[in-house]
Specification:
By secondary structure, this protein is mainly alpha-helical. The chain is built from six helices and three strands; from the N terminus they run H-H-H-H-E-H-H-E-E. The chain has a three-stranded antiparallel sheet with strand order 1-3-2, with helices on both faces. A hairpin with a 2-residue loop joins strand 2 and strand 3. Helix 2 (about 40-65) packs antiparallel against helix 3 (about 75-115) and helix 5 crosses helix 6.
Length: about 200
Amino acid sequence: LVALHAHDLRIVVCSGLLALQAGAAVGLAARAARGGALRGAWLVVAGMGLLGVTMLARVVMVAVHGGWTPPAGPPAAVQVTTHLVSLVVVLLNTTGYLLMQKERVVQLLHELATHDPLTGATNRRAMRDVLHRNVALSARTHLPLSLLMIDIDHFKRVNDEHGHPVGDVVLREVAARVQARLRGHDLLARYGGEEFLVVLPLT
C-alpha cells in the first residue's frame, strides 16, 4: 500500500461509502425478491451488486497504486469503466424498480379481485372457481369433499342496535376465528352479507 494523497483519500472514502450503500441495497432487494414475490428485485440486486464490486475495486486500485492526483486523476481506463458500469447500474435499477412496481400492482389487483376487503376472506366470485375445481377433483378421484355454510344468527339486530361499524367488527372477528381453525388447503369465503362458506378438501 502507498501513502494516500488527499485526492486519493477522497476517492477511497467516497467509493467505500458507495460500496457499503450498494451492499445494504442488495440486502433489501434480495429480501424483496425472496420466494419469487418480486422478480424485478433481482435486477436491482444485480445492479447494486455490480456497483458495489466496482467501488470496492476502485478502493483497492487507489490504495495499491495511489497517485491519482488532479488534474490527471484516475487513469482513463478506470474512469471509462466506472462510467460504463454506472450506466449499466442505472439501467438495471430503473428496469428492476419498474418491474417491482408492476408486480406490486398486479398483486394488489389480484387481491382486490379475489378477496373480500372487509374480512380478508375469499370473495364469492373467486370461491366459485375454487369450488368448481375441488368438486371436479373429488368426482374424478373419489376423494371426499365437505362444505360448511356458516350464518351469523341475529346479525340484523347487531346492525340495527349497535350500527354497521360494530357489525363490521363482528364479521371480521367471525372470519378471523374460523380462519384460525382451518388447515392450509381449506378455503374460507364470504358468500354474502353475514354468510360464509368453507371448502374442506379431503374431509
